[in-house]
Write a structure and sequence with these properties.
Helix content: 55-70%
Number of helices: 2
Largest sheet: none
Shape: elongated
Order of helices and strands: HH
Length: about 80
């Protein structure tokens, strides 16, 4: 009996099991992505008001920031 048969058999079984685990992970990711691509139901449209309110608050903060950037800054006192 050749001495290389047992190590090669273990290596092949390791490669086959890694391939099986990889294929399972790919199948699971594919299944999750297909589930994520579903069309939103009409009940999901209830969040439009909160999104709109958040957008308005961000726009108001951006406008305040723009006005602060346009105002000239007061010179600071020189260090002694």
């Amino acid at each position: 009996m050749n001495l290389w048969i047992l190590p090669l058999a273990l290596l092949c079984s390791l490669i086959l099991s890694a391939t099986a685990v990889s294929r399972f992970a790919l199948w699971r990711a594919h299944t999750l992505l297909k589930g994520a691509n579903l069309q939103p139901s009409p009940a999901d449209n209830s969040d439009d008001g909160s999104v709109r309110a958040l957008r308005e608050s961000v726009e108001s903060l951006a406008a305040r920031l723009r006005t602060l950037e346009l105002q000239p800054s007061q010179p600071s006192a020189p260090a002694r």
